[in-house]
């Protein structure tokens, strides 16, 4: 059974209370939070006042995806908010090893995210320090985009690297996940699936989360 991490980005922000309750009452394992700064990605999502207002109401561990430059400046604040996983982009970190150590020192779990064009082979010398790798299966910045097919082969290559090294590092996939792409990703070796539009734009989000959970 895959870990399911619904993305709040596709929720109804005028009804956040209702949507947090929906997540709390579902089989979702985590809640995925997309933080965008308008610099690393061409979009801005939500900031600390919004996160602080709902973090205490969310019963699920927070899976924070930082699509921002200089993520080191904000790691302590996200950890203080109770972030369970902190995902930083490979492409945004010049000193990735230092950033990963920083995340771990806060007590949060460290995850590195790869854009669609970034090969998994670049993780060879850091993967042993990572709790999770997040593969982007769309270009980051927006929900509701089409799944990039190459992610299936990329997931297999990452699975092979993790197994070859005897590691427990989780593989999470983000973007364009539905029952069809989700099934193929799980077969390829994914442990966790992020789903935004597929969950929140469905007629029955709780049932849709259950369907993903049963993949
Ligand atoms: C995109 C975000 C995703 C997004 C996924 O930049 O990282 O988490 O919410 O949305 P869907 O599942 O609709 O592709
Ligand atoms: Zn995301």
Task: Note down, in words, how this protein is organized.
The chain is of the alpha/beta class. The protein has a single domain, classed as Alpha-Beta Barrel (TIM Barrel). It has eight helices and eight strands, in the order E-H-E-H-E-H-E-H-E-E-H-E-H-E-H-H. The chain has an eight-stranded parallel β-sheet with strand order 1-8-7-6-5-4-3-2. Helix 2 links the parallel strand 2 and strand 3. It is globular.
Produce the secondary structure layout.
Layout: E1 3-6, H1 16-24, E2 31-36, H2 48-55, E3 62-67, H3 75-80, E4 83-89, H4 96-105, E5 109-114, E6 132-136, H5 151-164, E7 170-174, H6 179-188, E8 192-195, H7 197-200, H8 205-213
Parallel strand pairs: 1-8, 2-3, 3-4, 4-5, 5-6, 6-7, 7-8
The chain binds D-xylitol-5-phosphate (DX5) and zinc ion.
D-xylitol-5-phosphate binds next to strand 2, strand 8 and helix 7.
Q: What characterizes the major β-sheet?
A: 8 strands, parallel
Question: What's the order of the H and E elements?
Answer: EHEHEHEHEEHEHEHH
Give me the CATH fold name. Answer: TIM Barrel
Counted by DSSP, the helix tally is 8
Give the termini distance in whole angstroms: 6 Å
The amount of beta strand, in percent, is: 15-25%
Which CATH top level class fits? Alpha Beta
Average pLDDT rating: 97
Q: Low-confidence stretches at least 5 residues in length (pLDDT < 50)?
A: none
Strand tally = 8
> How many domains comprise the coordinates?
1
Ligands bound to this protein structure: D-xylitol-5-phosphate, zinc ion
Helix content: 25-40%
CATH superfamily: Aldolase class I
Q: What oligomeric assembly is this protein in? A: single chain
CATH architecture: Alpha-Beta Barrel
Task: Estimate the global geometry from the Cα principal axes.
Answer: globular
